[in-house]
Write a structure and sequence with these properties.
Shape: globular
CATH architecture: Alpha-Beta Barrel
Distance between the termini: 35 Å
Number of helices: 10
Bound molecules: NADP nicotinamide-adenine-dinucleotide phosphate
Number of domains: 1
Number of strands: 12
CATH topology: TIM Barrel
Strand content: 15-25%
Strand order of the largest sheet: 3-4-5-8-9-10-11-12
Order of helices and strands: EEEHEHEEEHEHEHEHEHHEHH
Largest sheet: 8 strands, parallel, barrel
Amino acid sequence: MQSSPIRTQSVRLGNSDLEVYRIGLGAWPMAGITSLGVTDEASVATIHRALDLGINHIDTAYAYGIGGRSDRVIAEALAGRPERVVLASKVGARLDDQGVWMNDARPEAIIQQAREIRDRLRVDMVDLMYLHAPDPKVPLSESADALKNVVDRGWVRWAGVSNVDLPQLEMFHGRCPVVAVQTYFNMFQQDSVLSLRDYCQSQSISLVVYWVLMKGLLAGGMARDHVLDPADRRRKYPIYQGEQWQAAQDLLDQLRSMARDKQCTVSQLVIAWSLLQPGIAVALVGAKRPKQIEETAVALHIPLTAEELGRVDGWIAEFQLRGDWAR
Ligand SMILES: NC(=O)c1ccc[n+]([C@@H]2O[C@H](COP(=O)([O-])OP(=O)(O)OC[C@H]3O[C@@H](n4cnc5c(N)ncnc54)[C@H](OP(=O)(O)O)[C@@H]3O)[C@@H](O)[C@H]2O)c1
């Protein structure tokens, strides 16, 4: 069986001058909010390992950690490193004093958060700044205008938007042109990408996806009888519970078997599959340990034949037939 054509390893984000490797490092786990056992030393080591492996795109946000923990760790890790790294961040959400997530995309909040992010990251200009998500309390048009204002001030090079549906994206892009859209995507949740990708292609907007590993589940290391720590916030997601968990484990057993045959890991197989899906430019993969990014960064080297892709798609279809489990 013939392998799929060699994939381009890097991609330009929209019409920007930002050329990034197709696997980006997600800094959410380093924030220490939902991930357990996070240390800044391990986070810095993870970033260094990612750079060593050729990853040149790190994704963070104003809301990633108390006091901007992920931004600060990134700044510390990059100090003295010679690589040119594309730094992407997000405004429009923050943590309150208890560490509880809240939308805050008022224009004045967007300006203030963007200013703080530059300070925390120790840069004059952030390469790419997304609106994290629409804030139900604020007209999206006002948030778009505020992000455009941040670009016009020269604080960020390019704008992006995240967690929007198609009408929201169209409106946002009309007021604040974006080069990238962030949305969730994984073997269990493909609806958002399916609804956005034609428009993105028509407008030269890059689709950057998160949760490719479904927060670790699709890394394949959690066995069927795995019991999540009571403090592990992944317990709240339906895919980590009951019938969905069992169905996901059935899919994972099939992936485990294919990964064994291909002499790769499940996470590599899953990321390789994700990056072969039409319209997806970049997969962001979270990590908090060097070993994790070592494993995932090389996923682009795993060839998948058309027959293998078809088998994986068949398993996903079987999973979907077992319930209406979109999100
Ligand atoms: N725009 C948005 O609203 C939005 C939302 C979510 C995420 N994001 C971005 O997308 C990035 C990716 O999402 P995510 O970090 O939430 O989830 P993810 O990439 O689906 O999963 C990351 C988790 O998978 C586990 N993992 C990673 N590599 C592994 C390996 N090789 N072996 C075993 N386990 C491994 C780790 O979990 P443990 O070590 O804890 O087991 C890690 O924390 C984020 O970091 C963030 O930058 C953006």
